[in-house]
Each structure stands twice: as structure tokens, then as C-alpha cells.
Fold:
Amino acid sequence: MGRQALEVADILRDHGSAWREANHGHVSLGQLKVMSAIERCRTAALGGHVMRCENDACGHTAIAYNSCRNRHCPKCQGAAARQWMAARAVELLPVPYFHVVFTLPAPIGDIAYQNKAVIYDLLFRASAETMVTIAADPKHLGANIGITAVLHTWGSAMTHHPHVHMIVPGGGISLDRARWIIKRPDFLLPVRVLSKLFRRLMIDKLIAAHAAGRLTFHGAHAALVNTKAFTAYLAPLKRTRWYVYAKRPLAGPKAVLAYLSRYTHRVAISNRRLVAADTKTVTFKVKNYRINGPGRYKTMTLAAHEFIRRLLIHVLPTGFHRIRHYGLLASGVKTDNLALARKLLAIAPLAPEPEAVGCEPPTILKPCPCCGSAMRIIEVFEAGEPARYGSTMMPAVIRIDTS
Structure:
């Protein structure tokens, strides 16, 4: 059997203890929990189950360890994304969908790291308000639109780069709720207009948050606690163009779902991007978005401790929602708005969903890798307990993803 692919968990197991000791007193409880979850994910420390091939002539047996289900874990996001996308599939409309990105300028990104919960929330609010306001303007669309927004806080090199990805239906319900409006199938809203309003709203919200004492500043930014210093810090940003980007519409609901799945449950770095690791360094793939063609992709090598630091700066505050819905898709009004949209678009109403039985979906087992027969669970063991039935697989590939 082949060598087990390199994982973020391997890097944390090899270097995490030394990193924690070197950074003692400077690591949050949330970051420590994420490290522990990733290190323990799909290991005996979380328990699991034993599967055996139902073909008696084969008798292949394998152990599958439980997932940590932490939202920052690279191994746990695939199943979470599929479940989330299945729930969204029934909400899609047969219209073009647009991808819009709102990015914070670097100076605001710098202070956002010290004020994650507040400034990330303001980023969501300012970008959504921008979209809803411009869309409702009769000079542009004159309609109420729906928005699904996802927060990402990283660039390809895992540096701090807060931005929001939005998936937006091309069109919306008229302000009098009498018709569905779409002016151009290949165009949603002007990005320069969006950029100007986003800039004004975000700066206004930052000033209000500062006045309310909701922002804290440390280190090189400690002086920004002073109102005049904070105003002066923001002043140059009022004269620069803020980055708002809109991609061409996506073709069809299936394409929208596939596209969404690339963003909704992505983490700072996936295991697929890891190239190599040794006692001192980690090498991984990066993408230069300013270059097209073969030169766009390259590798980067970081000291192992710097790799861990960059990974952990993207741990979100506890309870912070990184996927949000606005406008027609806002919680509490989504069901009625989607029903009206389907009526206005002359689409048959959705059949009522069957009532769910049980709390969790059944575990889906992959076929036997030896003979293709079905696998059956023959034992469930708790965290820290040994499995009574051993695996017939080689130790290098004992960790199995049954998601």
C-alpha cells in the first residue's frame, strides 16, 4: 500500500507541542482547541467503529476513526459542505447567478486581526447593505435581491486577507413585489458604484464602533485608541478605490452548487496543497492571482512554526457565523420570498419535504476495497478505548475517510 498523504494534522503533531511552548501566553483558548481537534481528528483518541466485508470469503476488516467536526479542520469540511449544499439545492432559482467579492484594504485588515468579531461582522454588514441598497435603486435594478455571503480571512499564502464571497441571483423581486426583474442576463450591478458605497459604509461603521468603545488596539496600533489618531488612520482610505469584484454569471443550478461548494466550507489550507514537511520546514502550493498561465502556481516553504502561526490566525471567534444570508434569503423571510420568486418566474412550487427521522444521517460506508462487496459495522468503540477487532489493512493507511 502507498504512503499516507501528508496532512496538516501531521505537522501539528510533529511541531505543535514545541510551538505551544514557544508561544505560551500568546495563544488563545480557541486556537489551542483547534490545534487539539485537528491533531486528534480520525485517530483512536476520538473513538470510531470497525467495519467488515459481508463477503465471508473476503472478510476484510478496517477501522474508521471519528472526525473532530471542527470547522477549521481540513479533513472535516468535505462532508459538512455536501450536507450544506444539499440543503441549498432546493433554494436555487433558474436564473443566472453572480459571484461578487468585497475585500477590506490592508490597513483595515491589520486592525481587524485585533478585533475579529467586530470588524468581520462590519464587513458582512457593510457589503450586504451595499448590495441591497444599489440593487433597490431604480437607476440600477430596482429590486430586492438575495445574497449568500461567506467570509474568508486568508490569501493563498495564509496571510491575513479578510474578504467576503457572495453568490447572488441575477435579478430580484420588484419593490412592489409584483414581478421578477432582471435587466441584463450578463450584468448585475456596477462595481465602481458598489466600491464607493462599500467604502463609505465601512468607514462610517468603523468610526461608530470606535466611538462606542467596541474596538481594541495593541502593539504598533496602540495609539489608535485615540479618536483623532484613528480618524487620521482612516483618512487616506477615503481617497483610494476599494476592491469589489464581480464575475460573469454561472450557468445553471448544478454549476452554482459546484461553485458554491468551493467557497462555503474552505479552510485556510487544504491537505491537497501540502507538498512536503521535515523537522524544520513545510512546503505547500500557492497561487498568484495576478498571473495567468503556468506561472500562476508555485510552491512556498515556511519554517514549521511560521506555518502553524499563519494557520491559527484564521481561527474565528467562538460562535461567529461565517456563512450568512441577506435580502430575500434572510432568515425568517426566505421561505415566503422563494415561494413568491418561483411564482413570478412561473416555476412549479416545491413538493413538501418529508419529515426527518432521527437526528443524524446514517453513516455511508464505502465498498470493500478488496472485493467490492458491502461493508458492515461490527463494532463501535468510544474515545480512548481499543478496538476488539483488528484491521486487516496496513498500518500506513488505517485512517479512513468514510464521509
